[in-house]
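REVIEWER CHECKLIST
Item 1: Sequence provided? yes
Item 2: Single chain? yes
Item 3: Sequence as submitted:
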Amino acid sequence: MPPRGGPGGFGPGEKYLTEEEKANQPKVTKELLVRVFSYLKPYKKQLLLAVLCIAASSILTLMPSILTGRMIDEGLIGRDLHRLIVLIIASLAVTAASNLIGVAESYLNTWIAQHITFDMRNAMYRHLQRMSQRFFTTNNQGEIITRMTSDISGVEQVIANTFTSILSNAITLIAALIAMYQKNWILATVGIVIVPLFTLPTRRAGKTRWMITNEAQACNDEINGILNETMSVSGQLLVKLFCKEDYEYGKYEEVNNRMVKLNIREQMAGRWFRVVLSTITSVGPMLLYLVGGILMIRRGADLTVGDITVLVALLSRMYGPVNSLLNIQVDWIRSMALFSRIFNYFDMPVEVENAPDAIVRTPEETKGGVEFQHVGFSYSEERKILDDISFRLEPGHSVAIVGPSGSGKSTIVNLIPRLYDVQAGAVLFDGIDVRKLDLHWLRSSIGVVTQETYLFNGSIRDNLLYVKPDATEEELRDACDKANVLDFIEAQENGFDTMVGNRGLKLSGGEKQRISIARVLLAKPALLIFDEATASLDSISEAKIQAAIDPLVTSCTSILIAHRLSTILAADEIIVVKNGRIEERGTHSELVGAGGVYTELYETQFKPGLAAEKDAVETDSGNHAGAGDKKREAIDGLDYDPENVFDWEMPEPEERELEARRRADEERRQIMDEVLQYFRYP
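Item 4: Structure as written out by the authors:
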């Protein structure tokens, strides 16, 4: 919000629209006003009472000025001490009553404003929670938070201050004018003519200072920018390395000098005007005294000294309301702009909604089978992300999706829990279009382990219980054991009550990832999705996570998006995606020699990854004693027995043909022979 009048300023806070605000003034329509005032409707009784308090308080505020005239005429000039005391007591009582009513008015305004913003925040949060993932990936997070915080807090200020101020000042001004005209219409008219002569020049001088203040603020922002850049650790290092100390000092000195000049201009702006203004402000009352004296002495008008004193007092009380009402346009435009921004968010359509007759299935009926039928999808009209994607994943089986970066792998799995909705074709879950399934049930049946693990700032227990608040200790331990993280948790001093820090920063990447796997397993989903679950991890962390994933893949319906060979090997089928289309599908042995996309990925991505691991082990062997033990630990971390690569303890998948099992084992054996050649003991 632009700065108001400064210290010793030009009335009760002159306000001006910025150029941006002028360019983006909202169009105030009947529909917009009806919508704004609809939020007041549930509190109309409290609002009516607040309006009555405002009216009473505004009128009573003028009563001491009116009673002052009677004190002069009836008490002082009339030499009636009793009458004077009664009027003084009455004036004090009216002032006290006005203040008490003001307290009640303030409470009612605050109560109404708080409840309206309470309703708006809840409605906005509920609305944003229903928005699709597209909304959060295309909109700036800071802007979303601003709508939830600053904008809705601004509504509270509009209701508690702006509307109240407009109503209070209008009533005060009307009551003052009525009281003045009741005393003498000539003096009242003189007063009305005088007020603009002082308020309008005041606003002009105030605008000049406001513009200088804006320049000074921009200059101050520039100074802060220089300090933030050059006083930080990284900034100072860069300055020193490139010998830019003198250059940065010169730049800072120039901006600092400009800031000094602006501050002097700001302090002196309007100073002479205020001197003149404070002198001629007395002209208003003197003019009333002059005109009143002429009417009393020369014309014999029915005026008293008390009447003239009341008119002068009421004239002084009019300056504030007039100045405030001159700001109505600014306050009104900003208020409507605030509501418009909020309503723009409320009016954003919810792309992914529950069907009216959404289907909910029992856990016994849920198998986790997935089928894509000619699916097409795009985030924008300019670029198609998926084109005619079709495949089927039977319950109890697993599929790995591989492809170059940006080929649409993550988009495929995001369509299953309806983070987005398909634009062509259909995604089926257990034979039913996901758009016909209950959204809560669907997402509860799917467990997703993402590449970027997010943990809340709490304990390990808090993060696990997020998916199942009523989970028992035994269930927590079982899930963590399956995720290969139970030993780590038990080794901590506080066990499950160990704090993970903001976003889990107190834990390593592998530890966070395994906890996230345990969190997913605690929900006991029918379908497990691993989206680059071992990416950006070192080989040992990857091996531990792989040891957790392998048994899950062979016992649950699973989809794996991976760029490492060790992850891909556990799947029953590999689907190769490129440019949003399925280019190839099959087993590793079928695809690796086909000369297609998978062969290219294998040569450029998978094999270099294995070579890097080999180099790391050999370097470690040359530099440290006990290297053989370390290499053995690396292999053991992969959960493979060098003597018998396929002596895995994995459960027999239900209803899987033995012939298919033998073929898969033979393919894995051939591939692991290639992997293990890099990890031979000395």
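Item 5: Key structural point noted by reviewer: Residues 23-183+324-350 form a domain with the ABC transporter transmembrane region fold fold (CATH 1.20.1560.10).
Item 6: Recommendation: ____
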